[in-house]
Amino acid sequence: MRNYQRSSKRLFTDFDGPLMDVSERYYQVYLYCLHQVRLPQQPIVQMSKEEFWSAKRAQVPEWKIGWESGLTLPGQAEDFARLRSETVHSPLFFQYDRLHDFAIPALEKLQEHGFDLAVMTMRRQKELYPVLNHFNLGRFFATDRIFCLRDDYKKRGDTKDKPQLMEKAIATLPPVEEQWIVGDTEADIIAGKRFRVKTIGILSGIRNEYQLRLHQPDRIKADLREVVAELTGDAIYNKIGAL
């Protein structure tokens, strides 16, 4: 464990959405499930990635995505939804995830401004630690600032599991004057509100603005660059460009 100077401000960040772009993984799983469930010669209406991701961000149910893609025979939409749930976190598809270009510059800037950084994610240990190591993200998150699910944990649903992670964080981390949680789903907002952590909904993940506003976060930002500008007053630059 690294020794960090005590900070007066802390930022919890979700992993998928704020830091990782998972849209290609989800789309490849969609294509796989669509073609696994369809019958030979059955006509389908394959969504483009843009159409699919828009539906996901609007929280269109999985069975309806299958139905709208042409899986209209009895039981097909349900089979599609079930297969998708079983497949989306399989090792074969994690290769499609990408680190957002702005993620490391944003974390560096937050660290420069003295933020105590913690990551809080619904990924299991085996799904998180290889990626942290691959991108050398451990330099931002001390081992006691990494909150994820054990490999043998039985999931109850994100809106139940993430508040449980937040409860552990609040109980084990030193107090600070101000802390925020940044995330792309309602689970992040619920976890923050339950423990009086200020919430920032972020639009670089799997929910659109309408869905996030239903849960009344303190702020909504396009991505982590806007969070940096809001919390530090400092802009970051990368190959995408300035904020």
What does this structure look like?
The chain is elongated, with a radius of gyration of 19 Å. The protein has helices at residues 23-37, 49-57, 62-68, 76-87, 91-94, 103-112, 125-134, 158-172, 186-194, 209-213, 224-232, and strands at 9-13, 20-21, 98-99, 116-124, 146-149, 178-183, 198-202, 219-221. β6, α9 and β7 (198-202) form a beta-alpha-beta unit. α3 (62-68) crosses α4, α6 (103-112) runs parallel beside α11 and α8 packs across α9. It has a six-stranded parallel β-sheet with strand order 5-4-1-6-7-8, with helices on both faces. A two-stranded antiparallel ribbon has the order 2-3. The protein has 243 residues and is an alpha/beta fold. The protein is built from eleven helices and eight strands. It has two domains: 9-22 and 97-232, HAD superfamily/HAD-like (Rossmann fold), CATH 3.40.50; 23-91. The protein is 43% helix and 15% strand.
Q: Based on DSSP secondary structure assignment, what is the total number of beta strands?
A: 8
Q: End-to-end span in angstroms?
A: 33 Å
Shape: elongated
Q: What is the gyration radius calculated from CA atoms?
A: 19 Å
> Total helix count?
11
Instruction: Specify the biggest β-sheet.
Output: 6 strands, parallel
Q: Kindly report the spatial arrangement of strands forming the biggest sheet.
A: 5-4-1-6-7-8
The topology string of helices and strands comes to EEHHHHHEHEHEHEHEHEH
- On the 0 to 100 scale, the average pLDDT is 93
Could you name the CATH homologous superfamily of the largest domain?
A: HAD superfamily/HAD-like
Secondary structure: helix percent: 40-55%
